[in-house]
Amino acid sequence: MIGRPRVHHRVTDSTNERAKELALGGAQHGTLVTADEQTAGRGRQGRAWVAPAGKALLMSVVLRDLGAVQAYLPLAAALAVCEACEQSAPVRCEIKWPNDVWVERRKLAGILVEGRPQEGWAVLGIGLNVSTAEGEFPDELRGLATSLNAASGEPASLCEVLARLLPALEARLDASPGETVAGWRERDALRGQTVRWSGGEGTATGIDDSGALMVETSSGRVTLDAGEVHLLH
Prior knowledge:
The chain is of the alpha+beta class and about 230 residues long. It has five helices and twelve strands. Helices cover about 25% and strands about 30% of the residues.
């Protein structure tokens, strides 16, 4: 079962680091690490993840022997986060490829997958802003990030969101790759939008069956299976 056993830290450097230590020590599938505060939280592309103490859901899960689902884990996790958030507050979530969860074009949650697939395990890290107020985000993130409570205007608790996220994640990990891709396409925030990445610029046209982003450029279709894209407003 996802979420058992659970190890909770008042303060830690990174829940992903603690979960990786547990995984290397043989921790079972579903082991959950949570924290009230991180001193060295990480996001994708080496970015820092910053959140005031007690205002964000900070968690990492040890996952083992996922099989074909492993390749779709970032997509499945993003869907689970969307579903849990929408069950907890009156919001509509979208996903910016590959796995940033957005509400009204602002980032609500980020996902970081690490691990050793060749050894049969992965660590799924999720940072989800629940009660962070607009003024509590760092200056560089104001206007770009939001929280569940700020977006909805209604209170949701960390415990409530976690209680909904764990079964949503379990259900998504049991789904087929086809179901995951179909569900993700319904929440695609970039489809039809102009995007830019390190290699060029074009119009996002959705994801293919492997989860890669398809972009139409002036020189033809490009498929991106990793990296970062930026929405051009």
